[in-house]
């Protein structure tokens, strides 16, 4: 059996790369990043995203070690989410373990070289296209905001179904 890993956020990097892709590369058919910051070896999410590390670390400390979920105000500014989707997220989201955004990524040399990799989202900026994740990344356009699994679920499922993995 071969698996397709779909890290939907940076915090998943602590699982998929060192624990799965590096240890069992023959079991991994491919990686699909969905509107995610791509990891850079030796950098944390806070660094890659250009966030204020001191402020975010302070927020994590004040939140018992959890990186707080988006606030109501931040969610209300999401143009692709319906009102019911925004309220759903407000009622369901919990904080990420803080270390998943403060710890630096450790990408094992060669672990990702031959693995098919896809990025699904709308931000094809040079920083994402030039990311040093090994090997090429295929880009699939989907303009659905940060949560396309809610805002564009059918379109997202169709893209994933059609990927050549």
TrEMBL record:
<protein>
    <recommendedName>
        <fullName>Hydrolase or acyltransferase of alpha/beta superfamily</fullName>
    </recommendedName>
</protein>
<dbReference type="InterPro" id="IPR029058">
    <property type="entry name" value="AB_hydrolase_fold"/>
</dbReference>
<dbReference type="InterPro" id="IPR052897">
    <property type="entry name" value="Sec-Metab_Biosynth_Hydrolase"/>
</dbReference>
């Amino acid at each position: 059996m071969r698996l397709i890993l779909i890290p939907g956020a940076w915090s998943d990097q602590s699982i998929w790369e060192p624990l799965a892709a590096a240890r069992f590369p023959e079991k991994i058919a491919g990686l699909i990043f969905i509107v995610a910051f791509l990891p850079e070896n030796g950098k944390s999410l806070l660094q890659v995203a250009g966030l204020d590390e001191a402020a975010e670390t302070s927020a994590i400390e004040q939140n018992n070690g959890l990186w707080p979920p988006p606030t109501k105000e931040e969610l209300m500014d999401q143009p692709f989410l319906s009102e019911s989707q925004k309220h759903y997220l407000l009622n369901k989201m919990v904080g990420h373990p803080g270390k998943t955004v403060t710890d630096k990524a450790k990408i094992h040399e060669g672990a990702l070289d031959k693995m098919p990799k896809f990025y699904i989202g709308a931000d094809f900026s040079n920083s994402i296209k030039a990311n040093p994740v090994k090997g090429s990344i295929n880009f699939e356009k989907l303009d659905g905001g940060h949560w396309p699994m809610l805002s564009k679920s059918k379109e997202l499922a169709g893209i994933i179904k059609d990927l050549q993995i």
